[in-house]
Design a protein that fits this description.
Helix content is 33%, strand content 22%. The chain is built from 15 helices and 20 strands.
Length: 425
């Protein structure tokens, strides 16, 4: 089970009362026998100094100062747009500091290259390269999971307690990592004050309140706002319990709590498969996006494409300039080559929120791709393709497959530095 489950949640999952407050902890229920709660030995507690920062400008200066001293700085935002904006400001500074950006809206090919590059610099090896200069790596939640990143200094947009604990795991991760002299294990949280957040959570937390529940954000802020340090992992259990323990609310907090309950109920309904309306089943792509604007789709980005005169194949040009020919019925004739082409196409897609993706096309218009990428239910009544596709012009702007705007009211663009961008017009 997750390390950040509350005692109440653990009891519900185990269907009996759990008692241990140890951390880390293994909870197990044999088919026959009593509940087992087994403490797991952990490393010595690590103290992390905490500072709540109300202004981005102060944090930007702190990041630049520490990078100039040779530190490897990590800055985590809650949305891609905010990460892109911070990276733009930092990379524009005329200083001998290397800046990078990592988020989910890069082509899979570009993202893999970036992850390999930055993990090599911020990971447990390659210490000599790490010490050559200070750096700032900006990113989103992908930096808090799976990647082996070890930062000297962390700046994070405020988030729920369990997310913050994940991010703190990227700070001073390895004991043998060389660090500049006389520095502390320190994190800055970008956050409003509690009273303002409770009065107007969506306004104070901004885009973060679209990603995380305002109620959970306020509860988390109530826990972290007065802390000047934490000891990890010793304090993890207390922080989680203090954030998620049930309590009676009033005023705005009661409203936020009710909103969260409504969302949870809606998600439970989706989990039960209730995606029909008045006995009329929704199309596959409409059903998947009906309940959340955060649902995502795959977008294939190309420089150009053209059908051969006899319509037996389509030549595509990828963003790196490579040309590939997609023959019809190749799957029957040469499965190895077909797999290679299908994998290449997949690596040149980017995952994008549905409402920020190019407008959908009819599956009939993309028949030349159907042998290589899943377009959706083959039933003719599901006429729209799940896959979105756009052409990237010389100015990095996305256009529709037949020209014109890719998405009404938005300027969409893509380049290797910033990834996929969506600017509302």
């Amino acid at each position: 089970m997750s390390a950040t489950l509350t005692q109440q949640r653990r009891s519900a999952l185990m269907r009996q009362t759990v008692c241990s407050q140890e951390y880390p902890l293994i909870s197990a229920q044999p088919k026959q026998g009593v509940l087992l709660e087994i403490p797991v030995p952990s490393a010595d507690a690590r103290k992390v100094t905490i500072q709540c920062c109300p202004a981005d400008d102060l944090a930007i200066q702190a990041a630049l100062d520490r990078a100039e001293q040779g530190q490897q700085v990590l800055w985590i935002e809650n949305t891609v747009a905010e990460a892109q904006a911070i990276y733009q400001r930092l990379s524009a500074m005329d200083m001998p500091i290397e800046c990078g950006l990592l988020h989910s809206r890069f082509l899979k090919t570009d993202r893999a290259l970036k992850e390999n590059y930055w993990v090599a610099l911020y990971g447990k090896d390659n210490h000599q390269a790490r010490q050559t200069q200070g750096r700032i790596l900006v990113g989103t939640q992908i930096l808090e999971q799976s990647l082996d990143i070890d930062a000297d200094f962390l700046i994070s947009r405020f988030a729920p307690t369990d997310m913050l604990l994940q991010r703190l795991g990227r700070l001073w991760r390895h004991d043998d990592t060389p660090r500049p002299d006389e520095i502390n294990c320190e994190v800055w949280f970008l956050t409003p004050d509690l009273a303002s957040a409770i009065a107007d959570a969506k306004g104070q937390f901004g885009k973060t309140a679209k990603v995380y529940s305002p109620y959970v954000l306020c509860r988390s802020l109530d826990v972290w706002r007065l802390l000047d340090s934490v000891a990890l992992p010793d304090d993890i259990r207390h922080l989680i319990e203090a954030t998620y323990a049930e309590r009676k609310e009033q005023g705005s907090m009661l409203d936020y709590q009710a909103e969260l309950a409504t969302v949870r109920a809606k998600l439970e309904n989706i989990a039960r498969g209730t995606l029909s309306k008045v006995r009329k089943t929704l199309s596959e792509n409409r059903a998947s996006t009906r309940y959340s604007e955060q649902d995502s789709v795959q977008v294939l980005l190309l420089k150009s494409y053209r059908h051969t005169p006899d319509k037996s194949a389509t030549e595509i040009t990828l963003l790196d300039g490579e040309k590939r020919l997609l023959p019809r019925d190749l799957k029957i004739r040469d499965k190895a080559q077909w797999r290679d082409l299908a994998a290449t196409l997949l690596q040149n897609t980017v995952q994008v929120a549905d409402y920020l993706a190019p407008k959908p096309m009819q599956k009939d218009d993309l028949k030349w791709l159907e042998d290589y990428i899943y377009l959706g239910n083959p039933d003719p009544k599901y006429d729209e393709s799940l896959l979105r596709i756009a052409i990237v012009d010389e100015a990095d702007n996305l256009q529709g497959l037949y020209g014109g705007e890719a998405l009404p009211n938005y300027r969409l663009s893509y380049n290797k530095d910033f990834g996929y961008q969506a600017e509302k017009i």
